[in-house]
Amino acid sequence: VLFAFHRFGSKLSEPVDNMSRGGLFAYIDVETGICGKAKQLHHYDQVFSCHPDTGARIEGLQVPNWAELMDYLKKSHTAFPFYEFFAWDVLISKDGKPYIIEINRGSDLSIQSLHPMRNDKLGKYMKEHKLLDRR
User: Fold this and answer.
1) H-run or E-run covering 24
2) Are the C-beta atoms of residues 87 and 78 closer than 8 Å to each other?
3) Distance from the CA of 120 to the CA of which of 27, 31, 67, 113 falls in 20 to 30 A?
4) What is the model's pTM?
5) Sign of the CA dihedral 128, 36, 10, 22?
6) Rounded distance between C-alpha atoms, residue 47 and residue 92, angstroms
7) Given a cut of 50, is residue 135 above it in pLDDT?
8) How far apart are alpha carbons 75 and 67 in whole angstroms?
9) Under a CB-based contact definition with an 8 Å cutoff, are residues 111 and 25 in contact?
10) What is the distance between the alpha carbons of residues 45 and 2, in angstroms, rounded to a whole number?
């Protein structure tokens, strides 16, 4: 797993959580399943420890059943051995069960404007597979 983030809707993005409409996202530590501070795509200079509309805590939030979710997605990925890279959209239900909403063949690279990944795992992967220039 190269990276993960949790999307949150906002009053700006209602009724969806799209980042392009004002939703927030927080990077998730892929080892622990713990969220960092949240950001918005069009206000990348601001960070949020708590949700700006509800006040609910974001930073430090533990994604339920994280280890099980990672195992589930890794096993699901083996059903498509001809694809090396997927971006998963997953819903975690109130009872902690994961539901795959969609599987994307690529990643939303607009998040690069908020967290440059050129030298992280994703950037290295993309360089190795000649998906980035040489800068």
Assistant:
1) strand 24-28
2) no
3) 67
4) 0.79
5) negative
6) 24
7) no
8) 12
9) yes
10) 24
**Spatial contact of 103 and 88, defined as CB atoms under 8 Å apart:** yes
Q: What is the DSSP string of 71-115?
A: HHHHHHHTT-TT-S--EEEEEE-TTS-EEEEEEESS--GGGGGTS
Percent of the residues in the chain that have a pLDDT greater than 90, as a whole number: 35
Radius of gyration for the chain, computed over Cα atoms and rounded to the nearest angstrom = 15
Closest-CA residue to 53 (of 84, 17, 86): 17
119 within 8 A of 112, measured Cβ to Cβ? no
| Residue among 68, 64, 61, 4 nearest 36 (CA) | 61
Question: How far, in Å, CA of 96 to CA of 91, rounded?
Answer: 9
Distances (CA, A) of 41 to 13, 35, 65: 12, 17, 27
Structural tokens at position 7: 């999307």
Instruction: Give the residue carrying structure tokens 């939303």.
Output: 108
Helix (H) or strand (E) holding 124: helix 121-128
- pLDDT value of position 3: 81
